[in-house]
Amino acid sequence: MKKIFALALALAMSLALFASCGETVSTTSPSASTAPAESAAKWRVISESLASEEYAIGFRKEDAALTKLVNDTLIEMKTDGSLAKISGDWFGKDITTIPSSSSDINYVADSADTSAERTTLILGLDASFPPMGYTDEGGNIVGFDVDVAKALCAKLGWELKLQPIDWDAKEMELNSGNIDCIWNGMTVTDERQAAMSLSLP
User: Fold this and answer.
1) What order of strands is seen across the sheet that includes strand 197-198?
2) Quick check: is 30 in a domain?
3) Where in the sequence is the domain holding 185, given as residue range(s)?
4) Residue 54, φ and ψ in degrees, nearest 5
């Protein structure tokens, strides 16, 4: 009896599905003249964003001097137009929100400014987050954040080392000293502001 009921139910569902679809599927490709009008619709990007996020670079809490130096250099890049150029290359326009002055920014005092001794910046990133940072077809790590970091390090005379990390373990990678910063489209949240020294958005 259960088998008969199950068979009847399956048959009823199949008929309902067939009736609701109301059209058959062709295995041949339709010509341009018979293609539905919807397939010819054009998509466009709207100018207004549906939601916005602020991204920042994360440093260890004790690296406030490094955070300040990176912020100051980003402001310099905003002022000289190099940040806008990188943004334009990736997005068609300058979408960055870095201010052109640091006069209104309050920095936490740092116990020791060791930035003068620095020669390398180890940047931790999820290398699968385009367009911010990702691995291209040639196996190179590229992206908007990567280009900004390269330009910033060139200004400061530092070597940039890109270190792919497990994104879920980013705070552990940072706090253990395996990386100097998390720089890969990291959304600003209250929790991250409490746990790290964040750059300007």
Assistant:
1) 159-164, 120-125, 181-187, 55-59, 197-198
2) no
3) 55-198
4) -105, 130
